Amino acid sequence: MLDKLFNKLSSKKDSKYIEINNTPNNYVIIGASAAGINAAKVLRKLNPKFSITVISKDDRIYSRCMLHHVISDHRSVESINFVDSDFMEKNNILWIKNKTVKSIDTDNKVVKLDKEDIVYDKLLIATGAKSFVPPIKNIKEGNNIYSLRDIEDVYNIKEKIKNSKKVAIIGAGLIGIDALTSLLDMGTLEVSLIYPNDYILDLQLDEYSAKVYESKFIENGAKLYPSLPVNQIVLDDNKNVKGVELGDNSIVECDLLIVATGVRPNTEIVANTNIEDNRGIVINEKCETTVEDVYAAGDVVGKNAIWPLAVKQGIVAAYNMAGFERILDDEFTFKNSMNFVGIPTVSLGIAIPPDGTYDVITRCDKDGYKKFVIKDNVITGFIAQGDISYTGPITYLIKHKVVIPNLKERVFDIGYADFFSMKENGEFEYNIN
Ligand SMILES: Cc1cc2nc3c(=O)[nH]c(=O)nc-3n(C[C@H](O)[C@H](O)[C@H](O)COP(=O)(O)OP(=O)(O)OC[C@H]3O[C@@H](n4cnc5c(N)ncnc54)[C@H](O)[C@@H]3O)c2cc1C
Questions:
Q1: Rounded to whole angstroms, how far apart are CA atoms 4 and 6?
Q2: Mean pLDDT computed over 305-309
Q3: Cα 65 to middle of ligand 1, angstroms
Q4: 66-99 tens-digit pLDDT
Q5: In the chain, what percentage of residues exceed pLDDT 90?
Q6: 347-365: b or e for each residue (b if 16 or more CB lie within 10 Å)?
Q7: CB distance 150 to 278 below 8 Å
Q8: What residues contact residue 30 under an 8 Å CB cut-off, 6+ apart?
Q9: pLDDT band for position 335 (50/70/90)?
């Protein structure tokens, strides 16, 4: 069955194109995750007759954001599938799973797998990213050292954890903290978090809001090692990890190490093409790459590696592939939300002022913490921790750079009336579109 479909798709002259808006309709998507699946959904919605093929190295569809919950058994592998189990069949999509694309021939519009070639009219590259492993002595050679990116990482960690007592994590970004919370939840492990920065999540949070989480993690048993680089990974005679040597020569003992030090886009498949790769596939606001009929979306473009942006780019790419113009109008560059140890936090815009020209107004009460960063009567950044109910309107004000007179004095009291002004003819106008 698959062979027949391969043959049909592989022979360009045999392909039956149905012209829709003069657009050839053989769509191929590499990647079956946030960007790829949402693109496929949109293409199918736009036309039931499009030929849609999704190729993925993964043999299942799952939310990477939920992987840590599988480690702690709070979720099963099946329950982190973010589409119905019959999504591909129901939508008449050919899914070539468990297959790796090796290269792309953009002159002949062919995607090359190990043995098969798949032709396309329009191609979406949604290959995501891989974990970045820093060049630390013994990190590549050692056993029981894992990243957290794919379901295979979870299987490996779960297997090893059965006999583990001490786990160390290097990196205190979102993935490192996800790993920390799930390992603490298990209640049976000594968990150490090692990071070179002065506080955790320093790309998303300010010191105050980060320290709120840090003290909760310590309460829950975590050992935190901030502000120190890693000298090397210490291995035993069998090359099993036994510790992490820090910059002050102290050693944090562990029998399992998780490395959560960032990601790099999966761009290898465009190496010999004219598709520009500059720490990620370069795209324009329509998600077009530098080669005609090739689009890219998600972590592979090397922007903000977060789920909502991958989804949005996948959707925008799909519309444009099908001939309906859509523009990416929000890159979610400065929008983060998280919920650790039952404390939700949202940070928006420039929440850490880069210099002294900004005003910072904070309030901390029984509902939690709020911080406004203001410049020239415009809110440029905001953090809310605990009560995050005010976030929607603030997002709007930041995004649209809305000027509110005397903002500094009354930022906690702004309301509906602040957005009305009187025109010269005495008529009231609403200043927000
Ligand atoms: C542990 C963890 C926690 C996270 N938490 C959050 C969070 O709380 N909030 C948030 O917004 N984001 C979070 N993220 C990030 C989020 O998961 C990613 O931004 C998102 O998965 C990106 O989706 P994507 O479609 O671009 O690529 P990916 O999800 O990386 O998927 C890539 C797809 O491409 C396929 N593929 C790759 N190379 C090839 C090839 N050569 N041939 C064929 N197929 C290939 C893969 O099999 C896969 O199907 C988290 C990530 C991790 C790992």
A1: 5
A2: 91
A3: 8
A4: 999 999 999 999 999 999 999 999 999 999 999 9
A5: 78
A6: bbbbbbbeeeebbebeeee
A7: no
A8: 36, 55, 56, 101, 111, 123, 124, 125, 126, 127, 269
A9: confident
- Residue whose CA is closest, atom 29 of ligand 1? 33
Pairing, β 190-194 against β 166-170: parallel
* Partners of 105 in beta bridges: 110
Across the chain, mean pLDDT equals 91
Q: Ligand 1 centre from 192 Cα, in Å?
A: 26
Report whether residue 280 contacts ligand 1, using a CB cutoff of 6 Å: no
CA 315 – CA 36 distance, rounded (Å): 9
Closest CA to 129 of 284, 274, 267: 267
Task: Report how far residue 300's alpha carbon sits from residue 278's, in angstroms, rounded to the nearest whole number.
Answer: 11
Under DSSP, the state recorded for 313 is H
Element (H, E) at 384: strand 378-386
Dihedral sign for Cα atoms in the order 167, 212, 250, 178: positive
β-pair type (251-253, 256-259) = unpaired
